[in-house]
Amino acid sequence: MLICVQKVLSRDQVSHVRGVMEAAKWESGASTAGANSEQVKRNQQLPPDSEASRRLGEHVLGALLVSPAFISAAIPLRIFPPLFNRYAVGDHFDMHVDNAVRGDTLTGARIRVDLAATLFLSDPDEYDGGELVVDDVYGSREFKLPAGDIALYTAGSPHMVAPVTRGARLASFLWLQSMIRHDEARSLICDLDASIQGLAPRLGRDDPDLRRLAGVYHNLIRYWGEA
Amino acid sequence: MLICIPEVLSKQRVAQFREVIANADWEDGRSTAGSQSSLVKNNLQLPQDGRAARELGDELLDALAASPLFVSAALPLKIFPPLFNRYGAGHGFGLHVDNAIRGVPRTPVRIRTDLSVTLFLSEPEEYDGGELVIEDRVGQQELKLAAGDLVLYPSTSLHLVREVTRGERIASFFWLQSMIRDNVARALLFDLDQAIQSLATRLGPADPACVRLTAVYHNLIRTWAEA
Asked: pTM value?
């Protein structure tokens, strides 16, 4: 699964987040990397337990949870507190797969990492390199999205951030456990929802065929969902 | 899911079936009953490998394959060669459940009986009693359909045929293994297909929404089907 959602954060929200990030203290990104990823990761992060990181994380979560496109694609059950990073010139994160399970040090909550998301906080013209590259079912895809947009992808897909060669790349990233564990099932439900949303303005919400399709949608979630 | 499908056989075909049946030899219906059912079964059947049963059975299978509603509701993988029975006055079939697995005589083919079918060949006014009664957790459904109509229902239910008190009730009955084992999943696919068929009529089958929904339908079958 690979989906981009535009304008999860408005320009004003992006400016606010960047302002807080710029005033905050940073640490090496190795602090949240697994044994394998540590070898291949070079960037800076806001310390996950810092007040700045937590506060901005709440801000990002608030925006995500009111984004119908994000909810429809991710069908989130539990979202790990968002983290914030910066790739300066020479920084990179080589090809890796995210850990399957993550625990949060503050809350003790554990999630199975079904999906990963990168929220871009720098515009593409602010830096060279720094593409998010994801190996998906139909091949490798590169992302360098406008600030405020998010890329959502299967955490089990190998992915990397290409070395930054000019400027700096600011981003937030997060992991989540979906109510629908399997990618194929989740993609199917997302396609069904997109069809229903597309038909609703044409036929009206009260249309009997749409009501039937909405029934199928909810019954599929009932069939596969973990709650 | 219990579904009635009208006019699987036309009145003319019903008359042809009835004529062949009237001239055939009959045997005790216990020949195909399991040990529990044989205690409560009291009717006559066309011998399973007699010419009449085989010829009519093949014709019936052709009629079923030509019924979009039957195919959509049953998604059949393997259909047992249809059997034919006759309940005269005093005949009935007490409460029972169908065997889970049925071998097709003299072949290595075995069928898991997911769905049971009764196709009525007598009109309701030709006999008294003889209702097919299907139990579910909250009560029971009583069925006495027009000649040429069939009822399709999960074989997991307990069911009976009420004693006939006047006239004669002629019917065909058989079992099938569905590509979709699970009743919930099969019902969901049926709903989705029916909504798509209706939308295709209204919007045209090439409408992008119909194409997308059709992809969801096939991908769900791919996810669940045994083939």
From this structure: 0.86
